[in-house]
Amino acid sequence: MTAGALPALPVPRLILWRHGRTAWNAAGRFQGQLDPPLDGHGRQQAAAAAPYVAAGLSPEDTVVVSSDLDRAAETARVLTGLLRVELRLDERLREHGMGSWEGLTRQEVADRFPDQYADWMAGRPVLRRGGEEPAAVADRVVAALADLPPAATAVVVTHGGTAGRLIERLLDLQPAYRRVLGPLGNCAWSELVVQGDRWRLLRHNSAVLPPPERRLEGAGPALPADALATPDGGPPPPEDADAV
User: Fold this and answer.
1) Catalytic residue annotation
2) Angle subtended at Cα 12 by Cα 154 and Cα 235, rounded to the nearest 5 degrees
């Protein structure tokens, strides 16, 4: 694909929805293409977020496609249950393969592979780790989306790293600008649409805030229920290894 070229996709609107939390997310452990399930909190996140993701979608003109890894597929099934549409599973939407880092915590990677970790934190290419190059991740995701049937909207249920690589490809962000956008938090979503000959990011990292009764004392007035979905849900916690 040449710089600025528009990937030819049969769907002009994409909602990229990251899966709910797993125990490995909470522990800061790199999952990559390993397959830990959602934890209880992750299931609650999916149940809370799905109605907001579904809002305004027409079942007749929406396709839902998910990574086949369990944490994404379980998240996606909450949405397809609401919309009553078929769930498509595609292994090409799996997380960015992290090679020798998979199963390790951030701290373990920093201790064992300090040079690789420094490059990763700076957004530079990581050498000798194994796994996948960012461009290869974007290539396989674009290929998966190109195979979808025509629809007004596709909800793509995927992973933090994979969503990041797809957004960078659609917006034609060069490697030096990979960290311009913050990563998706667990069960957060972004929306992109075609405008003219470009993709445009309409909203990023939308999320459902905790219920008002769980807000910290002194944190300000509680939000009404219809304001819980916000365009800026805030960054994922720093220990969330797969988010970057």
Assistant:
1) 19, 95
2) 60
Both tokens of residue 145? 């989306």
User: Where does the chain have alpha helices with state H?
Assistant: 23-27, 40-54, 70-83, 106-112, 114-121, 134-146, 160-170
Determine, yes or no, domain membership for 96: yes
* C-alpha dist (Å) from residue 176 to 122, 125, 168: 10, 10, 11
Q: Give the list of residues 6+ apart from residue 60 with CB closer than 8 angstroms, or none.
A: none
* Structure-token match 């009553």, residue found: 84
**Total of domains in the chain:** 1
CATH number where 32 lies: 3.40.50.1240
Model confidence pTM above 0.90: no
DSSP symbols for 135-199 = HHHHHHHHHHHHTSPP-SEEEEEE-HHHHHHHHHHHTT--GGGGGGSPPPPTT-EEEEEEETTEE
Q: CA-to-CA distance for 48 and 42, rounded, in angstroms?
A: 10
CA distance 2 to 17: 27
Distance (Å, whole) CA 127 – CA 101: 12
Within-domain flag for 207: yes
Residues of the chain with pLDDT under 70: 1-6, 210-244
Instruction: Please give the residue range of the domain that contains residue 20.
Output: 13-243
A 10 A CB-CB count for 27 gives 13
pLDDT per residue over 27-46, tens digit each? 999 999 999 999 999 999 99
